[in-house]
Specification:
- By secondary structure, this protein is mainly beta.
- Helix content is 2%, strand content 51%.
- The strands form 6 sheets. An 8-stranded mixed beta sheet has the order 22-23-24-25-1-28-27-26. A 4-stranded antiparallel beta sheet has the order 2-3-4-5.
- The radius of gyration is 19 Å and the shape is globular.
- The chain starts with a strand and ends with a strand.
């Protein structure tokens, strides 16, 4: 692959205990309330770190606590410093001091399926994917819970059953209306759903086909990315209904390479993407794509000894993170 080579320069490094064990979980890299968060696990302790707008450091806020039964739990920060936890048979809202505000019980998830939760754009409700309350119903249910009391404000049926789920909030004005929800079912079906909620109202809209989950990255203009499960197609949506830009890996990348990991906007003009031969392996290279046409522009070259993996987090401000066990490294291009 012959592109211009650009040099990566380190701007900050910070350790977060349990980060290495958490990477790969569906709640490890989150967008909440206009900021990127990392959720790490060190035994029974969960620690959430908010990525700083100051590129010379990694985190500007860190808080954590010990939680029971976190092995199958999806954790998300909520307003005022608390944590919401979607566990095997309940959703629980923990206050900033660790006390429990409320618990919403539901039928237990079957083995291999997991729920998820996230604050809605208003910051007054919690969106949560739970098991249906009636055994005869197969598909999972999305509920809107009052953040103060846990009362059900609205609910809707999802197109998936026995699934796994992940929420991300968009950045910018789009975050005021909708939340991204990836709903995976089996090895190939991965629905991209936009969720809009208001008191006693819930709208669930599918974006694209059955094989292009959100990458979790968006621009403040509202543009966002989806990536086919096997990495053969990357798509940019400027709005949920279009227009969209699609690039096939076979057309844009030589040597039978595919897109890997979670490509994201490095800034308004560039996308950082891992590329390699096998989307389920870690061995890869990092390339910069044009954010307008999704075509490769350059390859990122790191200092000697730096491990290059698919675990990257582009932050939209010209910097990105890579990870080495429990250490997060922040980079920019020279």
């Amino acid at each position: 692959m012959e592109f211009e080579a650009v040099r990566a320069e380190l701007t900050a490094t910070e350790e977060l205990p349990g980060l290495g064990a958490a990477l790969g979980r569906l709640d490890s890299l989150l967008v909440r309330d206009g900021a990127y968060w990392i959720v790490a696990r060190d035994g029974a302790r969960v620690e959430a770190g908010r990525l700083s707008g100051d590129t010379s450091i990694v985190f500007d806020v860190r808080h954590g606590r010990r939680l029971p039964g976190t092995e199958r739990a999806y954790v998300t920060p909520v307003p005022a410093g608390g944590l919401a936890v979607s566990a095997g048979d309940s959703v629980t809202l923990h206050e900033a001091d660790g006390s429990v505000r409320w618990t919403f019980p539901h039928p237990a998830w079957p083995t291999g399926a997991y729920g998820a939760c996230a604050p809605d754009p208003s910051g007054t409700a919690l969106l949560a994917v739970v098991q249906p309350g009636v055994e005869a119903e197969r598909n999972e249910v999305l509920v809107v819970l009052d953040l103060a009391t846990g009362a059900v404000l609205a609910s809707g049926t999802l197109p998936t059953h026995w699934g796994t789920y992940a929420f991300q909030q968009p950045l910018g004005p789009a975050a005021a209306q909708e939340v991204f929800l990836n709903a995976a079912q089996g090895q190939e079906e991965a629905y991209s759903l936009l969720v809009a909620s208001a008191p006693e109202r819930l709208e669930i809209t599918q974006v694209g086909g059955y094989d292009e989950p959100f990458t979790g990255s968006s621009l403040r203009s509202g543009a966002f990315l989806t990536l086919a499960v096997a990495g053969e197609q990357l798509t940019r949506y400027d709005t949920p209904a279009g227009p969209r830009t699609v690039v096939e890996a076979a057309d844009a990348l030589p040597e039978d390479l595919v897109f890997m990991g979670q490509p994201g906007f490095l800034d308004e003009g560039r996308i950082l993407a891992a590329v390699g031969e096998d989307p389920w392996e870690e061995e890869c290279r990092h390339v910069l794509l044009g954010a307008d046409d999704l075509r490769p522009r350059a390859e990122v070259m790191y200092p000697p000894g730096t491990e290059v993996t698919t675990r990257t987090l582009p932050l939209g401000d010209g910097t990105w993170l890579t990870f080495d066990d429990d250490t997060a490294h922040r980079w920019h291009t020279a």
